């Protein structure tokens, strides 16, 4: 039997396909069946091209390959090890080669699994224009230096420098490291300084902070536990800033602990066709500092595929912010805002809810729901290629933003939040931008709005990384 | 000293409006937070408003400095308009036809402006120097007071940051190279000039107080009553009898108003 | 006797002015008012080099073993030595001098500095060429820029805050400067000098600012136009020029052994000053 090359499959474990190459393999239809159940013994696992990567992490990752007893198992285990190596970002490239073992110590059915790897010699440097029409951090240029596998055990280190249109820029330094060579359990730390302007509320903020986080999986989903300490300096944006916003200017120090549970079973983050998402966030601020609150957020999404590549998507999000000290108001930079071309469509960015002299003040609680029907573009131009970046959609969005009044019962508060809700519907085109953002051009008709809302009827477009 | 926000404001307001009824006066907490130079300015403006018989509602805010359109205290909120610091506030009152120095002729008004500028530059810079540059006073008084309303570590960072700003300002006007003795000499020279000008008059310009009297009171009353680590300064002020008498006179006549407000 | 001579080093003159620098003019005029024996030296190479290294600007006054630079220091030195005309004034008048000096430094100086050193037209056409020529190589490359940076800091730093733009600072400083000139004009009134018929350091100070604004060919100068409207201030300036610092070409005196142009200017020696064109002054520097 000649050498068998087992090429690494490109898909994940669930849809496992192995492709064989060799002069004799394809001729005999029974051969495939046979070879999968053929007993094997992995004599050696060889890894070639290692420089700074430490042996202990490689041994731990590759050891399971040695335990394979048949050919199928051997291929699966070596592929799984490859996936782990890739998730740990140890190497630029990983190739697998399986060969019969040779030499005098070779056992019968003995195989040798070879990994050909290439390490990164230099940090990755990239310069990009950052998109942020929806998010508050509208950076113009971001320079990022990324150095994966810094000390040989999968440590990831990144350094950012951003320059916004105005002179005040920001920087960030992140470090994270897998624990015990497990790519799903990571511990990390970062420090940053950021500058942001919030034109809908007419204030600006410089934040300087540091955070520690721990990511780990459970059967519920992936968890992220984070402590963050941040000093925020808030100032009025200009002379026309309303006094209600101006009087909140000043320095705050927030020290908070946050837990995020995410269960993402969608096939795509931007334009999913099936699956669901559950995301629960809890934040407690008040471990030192002078900001105290409890914040609970939830985000749900369900995608139902229909005929003709159409998808029904139902999304629901909500959050509630609770004071701890009743005499201390929660400041504008911790409150909720609602509205915009990618969330509650038919309203300007964060244009829903209480305002003072045209400046959005935010509120303690919100809910938002959306029902979308996504279909391919009419007549399907560019089907299977370019056209897959586009979808047309029909949507109905509804939501509300309001303050919770402690003098009233939970039932009354719930009634307030549901009675004064905002509603809009429309249709438009969605464009996937890379793997992280989307662009939408919609025609929207707001149906229900409240006094003080900034309604944006008609054509509306938006780019952003968060949407609903 | 002057702030353009105030300046832009009077163009908007015009001279026709009388004193609004909802004027609010913003300053930091007096007992535990405010620093020496800021308090002199707050006291000067409050005295000026009392002399003018204008009512206001005193609002103590820990973040008054950050709220202020010029970044300095005190500031006034008149309806939707904000005016910060002594000169723009005086100009605003004058624009409304409520000036307390309307009886002065042009020469006297020029002299008053010159003395006001001298007090601003010499006494204000000297107070900045003493409270932010002098190591003892900074460590024992200014830093704890300025930082008192913030949690650690902001209670250290923010005074340090403000100290950098003060250094940069004093550097621009050449005060940073002075020694403490130089600064005390500057104060004495300024007080000497004020004392010589006041001579035996009731107020600087006759029988009626003007904004100069309010400003001098704001600084001197504060310098006399403040407890600084060394009492050299307070002692040297006591030598200018007529200035001390002026302070007593203004305190007796207007201080109750100031406190009531 | 030589100990009593004041050695004064100043920037050289132009446009019918004995010096183009306001502080130099002030110190020079004040020395003349006081009738002190003064030896004036114009942008001397070695001294300039030293003073540049020591971060000091002209004028520099040397008297006996003492060396003082900067206007305020020189005036207080003279006062402490019991020299100068200011000692003849009453305490109230001296108080007024202090107050108006503060007014000028706070309100007029920023706009004056802006006009000469920040305003692009004036800086490129007049200020930089003049100071570059007056400074010897290689200082001519550094001196104008250094003074410009210091001027910018002086103008913008104390007025800097979140909401004010540089353009608004400019509007503000020019507005204040014009108001300051008005106050000076009101204070001077119809009198010959600020305190009657005898000049004081305040007259010297006002002269220092007003003379260059009146005499220099400044492009679009709102400040110069405003000074011209204050007739009594320009009158004061011409009175001082004619009486104390008259222009007389025969007044030059070249002293061998010194680099640069030197005028010996004894106090009791009448009509003794010089007009210096760029060529004469700059000739030795190259």
Automatic annotation (TrEMBL), chain A:
One record GO biological process: mitochondrial respiratory chain complex assembly
Its membrane topology: Multi-pass membrane protein
Protein's organism: Mytilus edulis (Blue mussel)
Keyword Transmembrane belongs to the record: yes
Skewed-composition ranges (Polar residues): 21-30
Residues covered by region (Disordered): 1-32
Keyword Membrane annotated: yes
Residue stretches in coiled coil: none
Subcellular location: Mitochondrion outer membrane
Keywords: Membrane, Mitochondrion, Mitochondrion outer membrane, Transmembrane, Transmembrane beta strand
Lineage top rank: taxon: Eukaryota
GO cellular component: mitochondrial outer membrane
Xref: PANTHER family: SORTING AND ASSEMBLY MACHINERY COMPONENT 50 HOMOLOG, SORTING AND ASSEMBLY MACHINERY SAMM50 PROTEIN FAMILY MEMBER
Positions of the Bacterial surface antigen (D15) domain: 149-467
Pfam family, one: Omp85
UniProt name for this protein: SAM50
Chief localisation class: mitochondrion
Protein family (similarity comment): Belongs to the SAM50/omp85 family.
Automatic annotation (TrEMBL), chain B:
Keywords: Membrane, Mitochondrion, Mitochondrion outer membrane, Protein transport, Transport
Major localization listed first in the record, in broad terms: mitochondrion
BP-aspect Gene Ontology terms: mitochondrion organization; protein transport
Protein localization: Mitochondrion outer membrane
Keyword Plastid: no
Domain Mitochondrial outer membrane transport complex Sam37/metaxin N-terminal per the UniProt entry, residue ranges: 42-163
Sequence ranges assigned to domain Metaxin glutathione S-transferase in this UniProt record: 188-250
Gene3D superfamilies in the cross-refs: 1.20.1050.10
GO CC, any one term: SAM complex
Domain of life: Eukaryota
Family listed: Belongs to the metaxin family.
PANTHER family: METAXIN RELATED (PTHR12289), METAXIN-2 (PTHR12289:SF38)
Protein name from the UniProt record: Metaxin
Species this chain originates from: Mytilus galloprovincialis
From TrEMBL, chain C:
UniProtKB keywords: Membrane, Mitochondrion, Mitochondrion outer membrane, Protein transport, Transport
GO cellular component term of the entry, any: SAM complex
Localization: Mitochondrion outer membrane
UniProt keyword annotation of Repeat present: no
SUPFAM superfamilies in the record: GST C-terminal domain-like
Metaxin glutathione S-transferase domain residues: 177-240
Alphabetical list of InterPro entries matching this protein: Glutathione-S-Trfase_C_sf, Metaxin_GST, Mito_Protein_Transport_Metaxin, Sam37/metaxin_N
Major site of localization recorded for this protein: mitochondrion
Source domain of life: Eukaryota
Domain Mitochondrial outer membrane transport complex Sam37/metaxin N-terminal per the UniProt entry, residue ranges: 24-148
Keyword Cell membrane annotated: no
Listed GO biological process terms: mitochondrion organization; protein transport
Family in the record: Belongs to the metaxin family.
PANTHER family: FAILED AXON CONNECTIONS-RELATED (PTHR12289:SF41), METAXIN RELATED (PTHR12289)
The name this protein goes by in its record: MTX
Organism: Mytilus edulis
